[in-house]
Structures are given as structure tokens and as C-alpha cells.
Amino acid sequence: MCRTPVTQSYDQKFWQSISGRAVKDCRPIILADVTRDLDNIYFDLAKHEVPCSFVSVPRLMREKAVGVIDSCMSVLDSFTTEEVLLMQTIANQAAIAPLNIPPSSNRL
Q: How far apart are CA 74 and CA 15, in angstroms?
């Protein structure tokens, strides 16, 4: 069960975006064609763009969404289940990676 995101400091538009929905729902959001998603707050802009597939995957750490990774492809309906699962694995690793940095190391 996913809990409330770690931070809610994003503006209201973020929470209405595709990425915001992925973070809020703690699950990947996959769009076969961004130009046809009426829930996309950027729909007015997207309908003038080249059609593309879009996926937004939350970065989950201890059942909390701490960020999101987005990807798009110019081929419609192109993300397979395996690709989305791989992206979720990478996103989760990216979420916990900072925890593995020793406290005494020099950070950028």
C-alpha cells in the first residue's frame, strides 16, 4: 500500500499532470498517445505536438513516492509490460541509491 508522497511542495499543476498522478497514485501511468489524453493538463499543447507514447513511473522508497521518471517514444502504444516493470525497478533503485552513500563521503 502506497502512502502519501514524502513531499507535497509541488504546485497544484504538478498534481494534475501525468507525473503528478503517478506520484499521487504510486503507480505507473501509461498513455498510448499523449495527444488523446483529455486528463492531461497540457492537452491543449499536446494536441499540437507529434503523437507519442508516454509513461510516468514513480520512484518508490519504503512505499512512499519520492519522485518520478518519465519517458516518451514516438511510436504510439509502444511501452510493453516488461519495459514498464524495468523502468519501475530502475526508478526504485534511483530512489534508494542516496541512502547507500556513506555519511563521511564528499557529496557534490
A: 25
Give the closest residue to 29 by CA, choosing from 39, 38, 37, 18: 18
Question: What are the sequence ranges of the domains in the chain?
Answer: 12-97
Write out pLDDT tens, residues 22-81: 888 889 999 888 777 666 655 555 566 677 788 899 998 888 888 899 888 888 888 899
Amino acid at 3: R
Angle at 62 between CA 26 and CA 23, to 5 degrees: 20
CATH fold label, 12-97: Beta-Lactamase (3.30.450)
Among residues 96, 82, 81, 91, the alpha carbon closest in space to that of 57 is found at 91
- CA-CA distance, 98 to 53, in Å (whole number)? 30
Smallest Cα–Cα separation from 54: which of 38, 71, 68?
Answer: 71
State the pTM of this model: 0.73
Q: What are phi and psi of 65, to 5 degrees?
A: -80, 125
Hey, which bits of the chain come out as E strands?
Answer: 29-31, 53-61, 64-73
